[in-house]
Write a structure and sequence with these properties.
The structure holds two protein chains of two kinds. By secondary structure, chain A is an alpha+beta fold. Chain A is built from four helices and five strands. In chain A, strands 1-5-4-3-2 form a five-stranded antiparallel β-sheet. In chain A, a hairpin with a 3-residue loop joins strand 2 (about 65-70) and strand 3 (about 75-80). The longest helix of chain A is centred in the N-terminal third of the chain and has 19 residues, at about 20-35. The termini of chain A are far apart. Chain B folds into three domains: about 50-225, NADH:ubiquinone oxidoreductase-like, 20kDa subunit (Rossmann fold, 3-Layer(aba) Sandwich), CATH 3.40.50.700; about 230-305, Cytochrome-c3 Hydrogenase, Chain A, domain 2; about 320-360, no CATH class. Chain B has helices at about 5-15, 20-30, 40-45, 65-70, 75-85, 100-110, 140-150, 160-165, 180, 200-210, 225, 230-235, 240, 255, 275-280, 320-330, 330-350, 355-360, and strands at about 55-60, 85-90, 115-120, 125, 135, 140, 150-155, 175, 190. In chain B, the strands form three sheets. Chain B has a five-stranded parallel β-sheet, sandwiched between helices. In chain B, strands 4-8 form a two-stranded antiparallel ribbon. The chains are: A alpha+beta, B alpha/beta. The interface of A and B includes residues 18, 43, 45, 72 and 95 of A.
Chain lengths: ~130, ~375
């Protein structure tokens, strides 16, 4: 008997029902973004999914026009889904393990904004370079 | 790193950007099972956080809890946290041995008296003067009582320290008890599980480090963020339960379709833990995802709660099929049913399985 003889059927992802629950939550948050400009975050690691459903959610949300990659204590992949204002944000550590997996409902994900502390540090560096070249 | 330096300062000195720090905080929020929007609050709290001393005592245990912790799946994050705590004594992990190791424990207890965090794994045997488990010639009880005096708080890691665990299972030959059975005057967090989920151990440490206080606890002393809901409530197979779709054997059509394992003895409905969402082995899965029911390892006395393969509320024999036979055969069979039921009730009580109201009615 080989492993191929074991009849394994993959359950229909859409029939389990976990995807619909999260799509409803996303729709509610997206409604709040449209109505009041409210941002929201959903922690995907805190929600129950079968492996099929996780991929099913990815397929359902699709990919939109923008993809960004953050290189900061490991990679982060950030992309806008097929639904504008709904972003999929995945943070990895340097070993490539997922350390945070989020759906962010916002016009721009917070992590993409330049941080004022970093801007000030960068300005100092730039001025330092200019002062040395004079 | 100096005692007074904060994590934010440390990262900044290492050239880590504020954006990277925010990413770190987002990962911390996930790890602590806090709402993701709390990342900015975590960032603010961490800028004030100081480095706590930690003493880890291992008593009557199998080292599975330490194995779990050291196989934690996001090493970068954990290493940052362990940079932020000072693990001053852990006899399995530390390099020092013998008198030098015990000296390190004494030194840390004196230097950080009233401030250190005491982590304990393993139960404490009390029978025959506690002789069944000793370290450096001293009983576990003696060592625990001494270390607890100067502790700010105690974290009982694993079901043995939290509830007595396997050593406490009947007939409990060593008189093993939980930390909370001995220490009554200190805040105690129970991180139960056999072993506990590594991210839950680090999550509680991160919470203490970040906010300088222990997380909110349930009635059994477990952090609500991780133990607030049952495995069943967060199980991806829950919709099948709601639809009444159950696997009846481990190789039937229902099992292949990934249906609910309730009838195969899954203890998910009465077990509080984060396995269904936090998962194990780098997020690869958890027992139910592998097709085996939950055994309830984060609940008190789970070893003595009956077979892992008997459905939670059901008596040992199949009442439903007898009931159908009774409907066909009439009153005589019904009498036989109630006699069978009495025997079963007795059997269930003897094996300490949980009974529901329906079982008691004999339905």
């Amino acid at each position: 008997m080989s492993i191929q003889d074991i009849q394994i059927k993959v359950a229909d992802a859409h029939s389990i029902g976990n995807i619909n629950a999260i799509l409803n939550e996303i729709a509610t948050h997206l409604g709040n973004l449209v109505a009041r400009g409210d941002n929201a975050l959903i922690d995907l690691k805190s929600l129950p999914f079968s492996p099929d459903e996780y991929e099913g959610l990815r397929a359902m949300l699709g990919r939109g026009e923008v993809t960004a990659r953050l290189d900061s204590i490991g990679d982060s992949e950030i992309y806008e889904t097929h639904f504008p204002g709904v972003w999929w944000v995945t943070h990895y550590n340097v070993e490539g393990d997922i350390v945070a997996d989020l759906i962010e409902i916002a016009d721009v994900p917070a992590i993409l904004h330049s941080q004022w502390e970093d801007v000030r540090t960068g300005l100092g560096r730039l001025r330092n370079i200019l002062s040395q070249s004079e | 790193m100096s005692e007074h330096e904060t994590l934010e300062q440390r990262l900044s000195e290492q050239g880590v950007s504020r954006r990277a720090f925010l990413k770190f905080c987002a990962a911390l929020a996930t790890m602590m099972a806090l709402p993701p929007s709390s990342a900015s609050a975590i960032a603010a709290a961490l800028s004030q956080a100081k480095r706590p001393s930690v003493i880890w005592l291992s008593f009557q245990e199998c080292t599975g809890c330490t194995e779990s912790l050291t196989r934690s799946h996001s090493p970068t994050l954990e290493s940052l946290i362990f940079d932020m705590i000072s693990l001053d004594y852990h006899h399995t992990l530390q390099a020092a041995s013998g008198h030098a190791a015990e000296q390190a424990r004494d030194d840390a207890m004196k230097a950080f008296y009233g401030k250190y965090l005491l982590l304990v794994d393993g139960s404490i045997p009390l029978k025959d003067g506690g002789v069944y488990s000793t370290i450096a010639g001293r009983t576990n009880l003696d060592m625990l009582e001494e270390a607890a005096k100067g502790a700010a708080a105690i974290v009982a890691v694993g079901s043995c320290a939290a509830f007595g665990g396997l050593p406490n299972a009947q007939p409990n030959p060593t008189g093993a008890v939980a930390v909370s059975d001995i220490i009554k005057d200190k805040p105690i967090v129970n991180i139960s599980g056999c072993p506990p989920i590594p991210a839950v151990i680090t999550g509680v440490l991160a919470h203490y480090l970040t906010f300088g206080e222990l997380p909110a606890l349930d009635e059994l002393g477990r952090p609500k963020a991780f133990y607030g809901e049952t495995i069943h409530d967060r199980c991806y197979r829950r919709p099948f339960y709601d639809q009444g779709k159950f696997a009846k054997t481990f190789d039937d059509e229902g099992a292949r379709n990934g249906w609910c394992l309730y009838e195969l003895g899954c203890k998910g409905p009465t077990t509080h833990n984060a396995c269904a969402t936090t998962k194990w082995n780098g997020g690869a899965g958890f027992p139910i995802e592998a097709g085996h029911g939950c055994i309830g390892c984060s609940e008190p006395k789970f070893w003595d709660a009956g077979s892992f393969y008997t459905p939670l509320s059901a008596p040992a024999a199949d009442v439903a099929s007898i009931s159908q036979a009774a409907a066909v055969a009439g009153a005589g069979a019904a009498l036989a049913l109630s006699a069978t039921d009495r025997a079963k009730r007795q059997q269930v009580q003897q094996s300490r399985e949980k009974l529901t109201l329906e079982d008691l009615k004999g339905n």
